Amino acid sequence: xxxxxxxxxxPHCGAGAKSTDHHCSHCNTxxxxxxxPRCLARSFSGHKHCPGCGAELDLVAKTPGKELPCPRCxxxxxxxxxxxxxxxxxxxxxxxxxxxxxxRRVIADxxxxxxxxxxxxxxxxxxxxxxxxxxxxxVKCPVCTTMMNRKLFAMGAGVIVDVCRDHGTFxxxxxxxxxxxxxxxxxxxxxxxxxxxxxxxxxxxxxxxxTPVIMPPVTDTRTPGSALVDILFSLLG
Length: 237
Fold this sequence. Notes:
globular; single chain; 6-stranded antiparallel sheet; 6 helices; 2 domains
């Protein structure tokens, strides 16, 4: 369902509504206005995610005004809004934390406007060896404090990041600009092709061994860019 620019949506049925409406004209649900604690965008109570920055409203509402600790050095992260993407920056080690919504928005944007805006907003930094000999390699998620997994961002990217499957990814100094440039240069498309080739090779091996092969149904109804999101999160998962 499409809505006019500047209009909000009913959290129950998705119909367009004005900020001054007290009830949805379509389903008569009571509408109560609230603001996102992270970017202050307005929405009606009942929405799971902020329409402005994509933050999970229930999660950020639990700790209003509380800054997340940097996974690398525990210095409080400072949230900054770049377009419709929220990034959490560390002023000490210059690390960056992006939640899942932010990463998906950068990757799925086929016009690369978000990636370019984010790249322009980041300081010009050179990636350095953050994990020195004798220092801890694994860090904790700033949201849930669970130990994050170190993963290659994508085949060919040459960047290893720290990933919390549920909440987001931490980038050490200079890593995010490298990742953004990798995405803008078509790196994920190449990674997807390599992944398809790998799966085909594995399928051929399984067939040669007589291993039962179950082919998934072909029902691809994904929107443009979502295939890249799927391949990335399968690699980071």
